[in-house]
Fold these 3 entries.
Entry 1:
Amino acid sequence: MLELEVGLSHYLVLSAALFIVGIMGVLIRKNTIVILMSIELMLNAVNITFVAFSRFLNNMDGQISVFFVMAVAAAEAAIGLAIAVAVFKRFHGINIRFFENLKG
Amino acid sequence: MLDQLVPVMILFVVTVVFAGGLIFLTAIVGQKAKKSEVKLMPYECGLPGQESGSTKIPVKFYLTAISFILFDLEVVFLYPWTLVFAENVQALGGPLLISMGFFMGILIYGLIYEWRVGGLEWD
Amino acid sequence: MSLIDITFYILALTTFFAGVAVIAIPNPVYSALCLAITMIGVAGLFFTLEAYFIAGVQLIVYAGAVVIMFVMVLMLFDLKHEKKAFSKGLFSMILKIGSSAVVLASIFSAIYLTISAKPRLEEVNTDAIVAAKGLALQLFTKNVFAFEVIGILLLVVLVGAIALAKGKGGTHA
Amino acid sequence: MGSDLVEVSINTIKMLAIFLMMIQAVPMLVWVERRGSAFIQRRFGPNRVGPLGLFQLLADAVKFIFKENFVPKNAVKFLYLAAPVLALIPAALTFTAIPLSTPVEVASFELFGQSWGPYVFQFRGFEMNIGIIYILGVGSLGVYGLLIAGWASGNKYSLLGAIRASAQMISYELALGLSIVGILMIYGTFDLVELIGSQTGHLQFSFSGKEYHVGFLPNWGIFFQPLGALLFLVSAFAESNRLPFDLPEAEAELVAGFHTEYGGFKMLVFFMGEYGHMMVASALFAIFYLGGYHIPFVSVDSVKEFFLSTEMFGTSTLASLMTALVFHLSLLFKVIFLLWVFVWVRWTLPRFKYDRLMSLGWKTMLPWALVNTIVTALFIYYSKVSG
């Protein structure tokens, strides 16, 4: 099963591994900003799959969706951080448990 | 692809080895002075530093970082646009201008809003 | 084991281990720097996939803007070293690791079963500028609507971030 | 890197030579800066060691090597030592991607009983096909060196200095990116060699059908994008933390900002990084706006014919090598002039206050860069379409 010649499945295995590392990060860590970072990790894993399929199927749609995933991920990181800073100012700590008493 | 990626890696290793090696060399060759407590204190230009625990650093910087990300995305979307615009101006000039005009109009409005609301002020 | 495979394995291993380091290291500033290494590794992987323009954009947007924001904010918070960085509870920990393992196993089996023809990665050496032009042409003709929605999304995020930042004083108001 | 072993090894040696060229240029620049500032302030610069003080920098380098390697108390040892190297890497990776001159064609020749085929060697570190996007991407990584240096030296003031320096660098990176968009729109390519190629001959442009020829001006980018050139230069100053934008490391303000705790050779590596960024910025300005390695009204072939006619450089290999050197000198001359502008501005203009500096970046540079992009787009649209 294990060929050393790099093919499409190698990229998919790597992106799956990165995706799982991202999920673990969200589940395990308590610091909000590290959770945001592991979400960025998951989005990057998705980007690798997009580009790998776009390269092996010779069609540009994969790379365009990578463009949009990057834009949305950057926007999400910006807002996530703004909320984390607002919580830090109020509770002097950015542990995930402070987020339970957000209104609404 | 390879004759671009391999040189970048070689050069990265060469720079790290060169700069790191020289810094390591000075660690070996440099003077060995006795470790005096005062010398190792962080440089507070004379006044003994009051370790006041967590420092009060104005949080203004993260708003600059956020607006930088958003306008950087705008610049990044402009790069492919210039390629398409420069090449087929006759065929697609009009619709391209309108679509990018709308996109940049929104972000220029964002900049004006941030300016008016005082997001760009520095205390 | 041609040179392409060696570069792929170097980049893949650095990306994966930097990714694991992001969630493994208690001190958040170190994990932010490991995230930067992951982003640069992913940009290198895009290079091996001959998606040159996307690799450049990844370097500019992710490694050069998003992670710098993370590093700056973490340095601003100046958190003392976090002792309890990981969530407590042995049972919940086992549950979490177990569920991730199940998801991982299903993904690996899916990859192994479905990828019947194993296409090899041989160098097509497409010209980068021509590929970027093709990408850009498709971006601005077929997906123009999504492009405008991204503009509106950026405006909404900007207004939201300013509203959140209206609070007074520094980090310890 | 080419196919057979010879080509790969020659390309690697060429890349390392260009990297060493950048590292070796730093003491020369420090010498130019110290003599230049002395000239501006009507005093003698270093003139003790060697003729005109040229070996002063060699003496400094040796002195730095023997200084004590000092790590402050609450510094993070590994990152504290790694920060200068991180500050140098982006400068090194971008300088070697810049095309320095015309390619050198080597005809096939007989050596060691084997015939080596004809080669074409690019006169640059390595050939990067997305040119400017790679340079911008790696250039934006330069902020990490500052942040880690400020944070790892465990000193409150250096952390604040590092955050102020990085906030300044990212604000001016926007204006830099946008000013480049103007030039890309006119030449329509990312590759720097193509961009230089389209700046030859005399200034000519077509506006709605009619051709305009300006005989005496070279076809440089600066005449198409004067505002873009100004914006690029000013943000290049801010990117390399040069005066009047070097507030975060100004002695008076924050006690030398992020490199307060650094001394000895680590400080020299920071200088290498800063001067490296300066060289990259001036080389890019020369490529975008001053026609790169082209000499105004002299074409590459005429210089080659001239060298072919002389008997000393008769063979085609030597002739193409000499033409490459001549054109490399023309780029070098432009870069040295721009580096002199860096030094000249540093010792004449006063330093900005921090809020003025940030508001200049966000409230004047960015809007003007947006205006420049919009005007260029409309100009191209009307010049091409209604014709």
Entry 2:
Amino acid sequence: MSGWSPVNAWLPLIVVGTSLVAAAGIFLLKEHRHGLRTVFNLSAAVIKLGLVIWMALGVLDEVAFETRYVLVDGVSFILRADPLGIMFTGLSSLLWLFTTIYAIGYLEDAPNRSRFFGFFSLCVASTVGIALAGNLFTFFLFYELLTLSTYPLVVHRGTEKAMRAGKVYLAYTLGGGAVLLLGVAGLHALVGEIEFAAGAGLRDLDTALNPVLTLIFVLLVIGLGVKAALLPLHGWLPTAMVAPAPVSALLHAVAVVKAGAFGIVRVVYDVFGIEFTWQLGLLQPLAWLACATILYGSIRALWQTDLKRRLAYSTISQVSYIVLGTALFGPVGTVGGLVHLLHQGLMKITLFFCAGNYAETLGVHRIDELDGTGRRMPATSVAFTLGAFGMIGVPPLAGFVTKWYLGIGALDTGMAWVIAVLVASSLLNAAYFLPILHRIWFRPQRAPWPDEHFRDCRDTHPWLLLPTLATATFSLAAGLLAGMPFSPLYWAEVVVLREYLP
Amino acid sequence: MSGGEALSWLLVVPLLAAIATLLAPGRWRGWGSLAALPLLWLAFTPVLAAFLHQGTLTTPLGGWSPPLGIALIGDGLALGLVGLTLGVFSLCALFAAADPDPEDHSHLWPLAWFLIAALNGIWLSGDVFNLYVGLELLGLAAVGLVALKGSAEALAAAMRYLLAALLGSLAYLIGVALLYAAAGSLALADLAQLDGGDTTVRVALALMAVGLMLKTALFPLHGWLPAAHGGALPAVSALLSALVVKASFIILLRLWLALDADPLAVVAAQAIGLLGAGAVFWGGWMAWRQARLKYLVAYSTVAQIGYLFLFFPLITGTGTDAARLAWDGTLLMLFAHALAKAGMFLAAGNLVRAVGSAQIADLAGVGRFRPLSLLSFGIAGVSIMGLPPSGGFTAKWLLLQSALASGQWPWLIVLMGGGLLSAVYVFKVLRHAFVEGPTRDTFRSPPTAAELAALTLALSSLVLGVAAHGLLALMRPDALSAVLEGAG
Amino acid sequence: MNTAIDAFGLVLAPALPLIMLLAACVPGFRGRIACWLPYAAVPALLLALGGQTDAVARLDWLLFGTVLALDELNRVFLAFTALLWLGAGWHARGHLAGDARADGFRLLWFATMSGNFGLILAQDVASFYAAFALMTFAVYGLVIHRRSAEAIRAGRVYLVMAILGEGLILSGLLLAAAGSGAPLMALVSDLPGAIAVSPRRDLIIACLFAGFGVKAGLPLLHLWLPLAHPVAPVPASAVLSGAMIKAGLLGWMTTLPLGLVSLPGWSLLVMLTGFVAAFGAALIGVNQRTPKTVLAYSSVSQMGLITVGVGAALQAPEAWPVLSAAIALYALHHGLAKGALFLGVGIAGQAGGRLSGPGARGLWLALALPGVSLAGPMVSGMAAKTSLKAAFEAGMQLPAWWAHLPMLMGLAAIGTTTLIARHLWLLRDMKPGAAASRSEWLGWGFTLAASSLGLILLPWLPVPTPWPEALRALPDLLWPVVAGTLLGVLAHRYLRAWPIPAGDALVPISAALRQLRIAMCLTLRALRRQLRPLGRRLSAWTEGLRADGEQASPLEHTARREAGLIFAVLLALMLLALTMG
Amino acid sequence: MSTDLFFAWIGVALCGLGLFGFIVHHHLMRRLLAFNIMGSGSFLLLVGLAQDGRGPDPVPQALVLTGIVIAVASTALALVVLRRWYRVSGESSLPEDV
């Protein structure tokens, strides 16, 4: 399988293209062609997943997959499959499959489905593009495309509240995009085209340029931090919760916040190079920022009464683990951050699926309405429990693996205070998740469900239940079988070993 | 037929078509024009082929050689612009022909053909007086088009437009007179030999610049534009915004490149850049404040014109790299804006027709019934906002790079701020696609061809973002290298 | 072959409860699983009795590489834990008949059991912590099984403290593992050595001591114990008090650097806490009004004594081998005895007329037996206490006040005896309920027997002291019992119980917390009130900025009207600039 | 001031006069006339500047001829629009200019 072949050069583009083609096809379909749309959706998702697995195997064998095209002089459009990119691509295509299944069930009989699924596919195309981008310019291209393709999803409901959320979302993300563009352009002006390559770095530049580089780094992190919901830039995330559940799941677990976090990883490792970032003295403040966000998100989550809003604040907190791992100067911390990229995705998507199941099946939105749902919807509740415990970081679930690696990584770097943050965050996570679990499992149902559907199903509609259980199983397996080949941990280690260690 | 001879057909065909449609009865004009369009493309193809084969083409018209005769020069820039004109006009014509307008607007066709002839004349002219003739013809045709609707509002807009156009042309004409006095020639190539420090030349250039700025509607001389562009028929608005304002800009650009040697040019360029910045912000702000859809789009044109004028500070005295980037960026911006804005006006026309109201607030719920029109508007909006992947973005990227390369970071703020401001007004419209609620349920559907025309224009502004490389390489002129030598 | 069986047993011991848990989720199996409930502990018991010491099972694919093993120390813990789970399981099977929430109880029962066995057997840090957490969280459901207001409150207190403990343990484990050779796949056995040389030694010890101390009922960390035990169903209290508390102890014994370095400061602190627990719990305990609360305080008191043993080992590393055996023995002895006592409460409550009937005397004796054993003079208690005392004396170069340790232990035994007396007294007053089922009797009887005869039945138990010497120490053991009994008999008529609520210090603490919350709310509200005008002004300003609706602005009008003028001005300016230049 | 450029200066003066009229008047007819005066001024300038003793030059003549044609055409158009405007609105000046 080694060696170069023309197919390999096109494969990254084809992977991005599958969802683009699906998007175009779905846009052109008439609203009532449900069957055909479902076929489109699912076949695109399955084909993409298959291609990504093929590429992943190839990448393990060090096959090069690269698409390259000169856009204007000095700027190329590059899609390339490296281990880190494949990791994120794998996550998005896997979760896309499940989210698509879920969304088909969730939006049954809802209006505007063509529009929804069209933008949905576009959103995934941009996420995969972000993952496979081979240079900062291409990354930015898809990063902005992501903003555009998610806006219609956020405002999908079309209510006054949704429109306001959409406005906030746009204000944040477009502003962030502009700042990011400044950073990217500045860097480009300074050193020309920047391909992602470990250790490519900017070290060889004149040291007099260090302040400029620092400024550019700050611009990049601000631009990416909006999507990653870093502390002062997180405001859009809770308001964007008005979107339908699959969208929230996608926003939180796969696409938007992950794109931001992934971008920060790319900037630190593949643009500046971890050592050079360290020399510039930027890792420490980044770690502080991440820790502040972790704690802030958790604390704010305590006070939320709406289930999805609580989950949203939890996301703010959890995504910063990835940033924290990036900011730890050492292989172990990096593994922790990278692996959380996948773990958080699996766990949070499970939680949002569950929240959607509760809302869709019983009409339950607020936390105090959850009493006794465990008896009515046991399978969903088990999934929710797994997700919640994973978030808390209870072994053997996925979250524990992350915390352990981050903790050890922090100690390797000599930042013992990070342990305190990790533990405090775990405690806070427990403080806002366990009461929910208590209500679900141990309280009797108080009142008739606000809006019950699927009365003849034991739990909920199979289209909704199946993806939920699948992702819950994955998040359990990711922790329980962390030592197995092809587990998230394994991939993260491959990335670090191959790219960032000499 | 050699490529050089074919060059003149690019003028002759539209003129003939204009006369033919003028003579034809009203109901034949539209379809007759559509039938004439392939002829125009047929004339363009050999020209393009010849250019690709042998480089810049020159034809003395009617066998007279300069200075008395009129020479047509087909360089890369000119041919690119001719191509753009043909493309935009074809789609606008399709739109207008498909439009089942109850009122008779068949005068549109001869006027539009005159407009095309004037535009092609301007793109292909090599001397300043020909440019003047083209400019006047363009202005008259455009005013006629604006007045076409016949309503009081349209007539007032046309009148104002006419006055501004006349004033601008006159200033330009006086400049031509001064230049001729100084150089004894009208050819741009000869003017390049002039000593830039000469007072006569300076005054001439200043007069011409102000006149052209008035015709391009650069802030704060843009007062005539919103009413003229916003009040006209959709196809007319599209032509005006996409092409007509660009004509005077291109003339200014060519003049600037020819008469660039003046040390004061840097100061003047900065001043023009400042006006451009003002246009970006003021136009964006006003666009946001509009209640009527087409006025919003018209103000957006005011803003976008501002970007074009950043060309001057970025190319004057900044060094090879910055100048090359500025050139590429500005031209790409021009192309992207032309395509996107034409698409946007056509889409806006469709939307207005669908809901039967010009107000933005009445668009609520239209997304469910006319998704295609709104999608076209959105796609065009992407380019207007300068978001990737679109021509607008790539152009903005190049301009950013140019500003950074020349160390003029304040222009960054303009580029960024303008982009954000445009997002504000574009989304002011787009959000109505998603609003659900008490809305009308009677929508008139525009013809499919009209929707497709808008979509094609919008999409091509996106494609331009990824296909810019070849186009820019084609248009980068020998003239530029001369400038670069001067600047370097 | 044997090793293969051992390895299988090692895996099966924690896995069988989980398998049964999963099976219990399938409606068709539910009845059968309910019937087999007690036998989930059988593999663990068989392993403890018949497994080879040093048997190892490695599951590299699980977590970061799970290692399960049996050694001398955890074999003791596994033995009594398994016995207890078996006995309590039998009791639970009868106890749950007719309970509407029995299904949920069984699931959590299996989960807790699996966690308990897992943490005893796990040798790598990750699995150890995983099993520990599983037990911690699952037991919450057992505590609040009744859903009464007290149960919910007890559950909440338990959960808060348990999670704090988990956090401390996690930090301790992380800090310790980072210093070991393979931080990512650290073995528990690597930790003491790593801690001993770690620059953050004191911090790590503090984290682990306090973290495990929550389970072991250290003073102030014990608050959940007297709340949770009375409200939990009887079999749950039995395992809670008998087995789970010992998990904390096992945590100390495996992770702290015992036997490696001498830490006099820590030793003093730990021993002091131990004694505070031993005496304080006894004092508070005699003032309680329900038998199970008294037993819970007795557990705190007993764990206090064991804590003293741990403290001693911190001072005198060379005494660790002896001490660890003694502590293990004591843990076994206390675990089984306390289990039997708790199950006895259930029996007494449901014995119907028998407590006053013809066979009453025998029943009373049986109920009191483990209590007496706890106080000292029975076989297992004797062995445990003498070995502990012997261990104290074995150390060399000790602080002078260690000479008083046996005396202090004697005093503690007085407390224990008084507590048992109080317990029996309260049992007498219990309202008789429905008759206990046969399964409940079986469970109680089994645990009682195990508690009384455990020492004899488990031949490999590390009994450190030769018997004659132990017999010679008998008077030392007997006088506190006699004194305590006398005290109990004399006092019960005159002692009017102080109204100390169960959970003692919790009451003022929660009151203080409530006050703090109110104060914070008030402050925040005041702050918001201060900030409101500012916000209003800001929003008014932004409104003003956008107020001028949708029409062209005045400036625009001017520009339009005076386009010509501006044109002229611009022209003039340019001309001026040009001619000046 | 050299006599060579006499006509040119007259042209400049006419232009200025026209511009002044263009600015101060609101009545559209007057503005149109002012514009025509400006036009004449600029033609004079064009021809006058060529009178610098280099002998007769056909180019300015040709230019002015073309210019006059264009001026006539634009004036005609302006008159048409003006009349239409007057008929539709009854005003002789533009709305915001009053």
Entry 3:
Amino acid sequence: MAEFFQQSFHAHFNFWIYVILMMIGLWALIAKNNLIKKLIGMSIFQTAIILFYVSLGVKAGATIPILDPYGNKEQAAAYAEESDPAKGKNEKKGTEEKGDSSYVGKKSPNPDIMANPLPHVLMLTAIVVGVATLGVALSIAQMIFKEFGSLEEDEILEIVKGGNVDD
Amino acid sequence: MIFAFDIVILVFLVIAAIIALSVKDLLSASMIFGIYGFLICLLWAEMGAVDVAFTEAAVGAGISAVLMIATVFNTKRKSSD
Amino acid sequence: MTDQIPAILVLAPLFGALIIGLAGQKDHRVCFPVTIVSLLVSLFAAFGAVVEVVRSGEIDYFMGGWEEPIGIGIHLHIDSLNAPLLVAIGIVSVLVAIFSIRRIGDKNTEKTPHFYSLYLMLCVGLFGITIAGDAFNLFVLIEVSSLTSYGLIAMGSSRRGTLAAFNYVLMGTVGASFYLLGVGYLYLMTGTLNMQEIHTIFLANPDIASSKAVAISFILILIGIWIKMAFFPLYGWLPNAYSYCPSSSACILAPLMTKISVYVMIRVMLGVFGIEWVFASPGYSNLVVWLAVIAILAGSMLALAQREIKKMLCYLIVAEVGYMVGGAWLADEKLWGLTGSLYHILGDAAMTLCLFLAAGIFAKRFNAIEIEDLEGLFKKAPWTAAGFVVGALAMIGVPPTCGFFSKFYLIRGGIEANHWEFVVALLVSSLVNAVLFFRIFEIAFFGNKPPEGHGHHEEEVAELKEEHHPEIPTWTGTSSLLVASAIVILLGIFNGEIVELIRIGLEDLPQFASRL
Amino acid sequence: MRLSQIFATIAVVITGCILLYGVSDFPGFGDPHSPANAGVPGSESVSQYFITESYGDTKVPNLVTSVLADYRGYDTMFETVVIFAAGMAIFAILGAVGGGGQPREQSEEPFFVNGDHSRIIVGTTCRLLVPVIQLFALYVIGHGHYSPGGGFQGGVILAASFIIIALSSNLNAALRRLSEANYLRIACIGILIYAGFGVLCQVLEGNFLDYGLLQPVLLTDGPEMARSHSMLGVEIGVAFTVTAIMFAIYANLSSRGTLRDGL
């Protein structure tokens, strides 16, 4: 058990937290009585999934996925390594004068020095989808408040069952 | 990525999520949800996902919280749970 | 032009929606022609896709021309499994658009452009889901169709409808999120999002395919899609959402949304995980078939208990979803269950459309919400009644209609797979449907009202009522209903050809070379 | 404890256990050679391709932007459509609440309401802040190729500037700058720009969104620069839609769909 904990918990700390956050959100989504609270739970549920995806793309010791050989020494070194070593120094001189053209003709960097961009792209989409859903859900919640005068689920269900409130 | 930061922010995240769900005042809950958004934005910046962090700062922490507050103002501030 | 078919399918309704957004606010008369024209373009492209698929097998389309290495761009894929479905979506959307003319605008004309814009974007989502070859792209398009359907359901003005829409939003989001999480697990284990590529990796690396994470990703994707299709334990959102919304929305959502989800499930089973992997341990497929059996029986029984037409139809959808899921999971040697399931997607779309259109016309014109309100209506509206009868006969499974043939294939699969409980459930469900619909026929033809005591039931009925408009002409609705019922019969008559097309698609999948 | 809470606890515990059971099988956190980061042995890794080749393909240093707007541009277009659909859905839902045909008040309250001096500080600060925010938003949209940012982020920030106007003064002040008819139109035009770039590529006998073919239209040297410029155009389209719809959602939600006297 202790070994399992050591192995799983230490190497997968982010993944454990994502499960915990997701379960908090899911619990709130099902069990909370107030509709706004349900929506907060829904948002937490969605961010937990985003946390999972972003954790996939993390590489230990890597930088952000933006090419910048001037500012970042590691990236510059990777460029110099990957391109022709003899040519590397000359080109480095050239960068100061020619600006952007310094990228041209160079070979690509070592992929391990940059975080994986694909999960980031996917999660941009997911965040936007999340806010769109939240907006629609909030507008429906406003309609429910207008119709029933309450945002508590049990009160609303009572009104629906009893049929004792007129418009 | 710095592991110590990672753990600290993740723990704060869980705390913020629980508080946002347990506060009875919905306005406070929406604002704590905004704090949750900023924390997770910090986490993503720390993980190297700068574009996601930027979007989350603008969308998750900014617009979502504002929309929620707009709804709370137009409905009811008190909640039973 | 034939190589651009997949793009045209999606883009025509999208541009239609944008034009309505731009011009529809000022002049509402723009909305309807634009809708029809853009949907007809899509329908035409769908027919083109079928012709092309019959001629050359399959169509692959790479967005932005990013073909190599596979998986960097987005891949659209049409083969003979989804080409017939494209035509079905096109036909249903055109017919419902014709039905919906001047209906949604009755009460509040300000909403007309919003309705048609959402309607066209829903069609974009449905077409896109059907042809998607990329797991994440599928998620985005599921969200397009879900968000539009939230809007379409909540735009009605009934109180229960709003509540149902809220539940639908929550359930739909959870379903889509589970799907997204499952895709994330797949990406974690394989490093790609392209469905075919994931399948290739599974075939090449059995250790990945047998890992825990892949098994869990399959479970997550399955749960997500089951929520979307209202499979048995997760069906709670469907009946209220579909019965309290405007009838134009119900007519497009009920025939298509659940069926597309079933298609997505089959696509994921066949194209991503592979049928050998899915049916590797018979225990799980037995479990799903038993769930389907419970779904069929529960759906039929609950339908029997309903007194409102629309709610009854909604519970019948739950039962029909049970047919399709059960058929897909029968795992018989020759895959007749899967064939029947794919054929039933088409047939069920047509017959659900028939029944919902008829129910919508009854509600609009005669204010008939409950079954007993139908008394003597068949004499007043013989054409609508004819359409309703055809749809009902197909539900029961009477020979010339498609319902009979799909049940025939499903039962054949059940017998070959030795799943007798599924066969029994199908027969019981047919019997229940027969009882259900003959009760309606009796009331509607002879006016034998069953003696009933009213409880506090009136309010619920009042919620279901829409604006009552006896004066507006209903020939548009009736004509689309008649076309729909003709399609029900045509699908039955030409079942051999359609099934042959589906079988070709199944045979093309590499893992079946040994089976068929 | 209510029934739903018991049910929720059971469901959550079961789901959580299943998920944690799967976690133990994952590759380690931060492992640069996990399948997601480096691909499965025997097949080419997609994400490594993006890191090593995308600059050569598109000449955009920000890999996220190039993947977002070019390789997966089809997804991004539908992401924008999702936003548009959400906006349409909200108008359709809340439209029933509003008075419909009633004329809307066009009078704008001044920043300093008569006698109400408590708003002076807020009003003045926001008035000074808004142009700066808008300028920053445009920078974010335009500079998305070289730094974090792009159409979505810039669009949201631009919408935030209008929301600040609405919060510090009132909704009418913001609606006068971006009216109901205009925001719908802008939202449609945004997607039209995006899809228009795609269709233009089809006209030039390529696939949808194959920006490289736009070289003769955009007069750039090489298809790579054509891709880079088209991505900028596409991002601007996204920004249009996001700005308009985000502000519209706020305006509708804060005034219950009436678009009169919001918060």
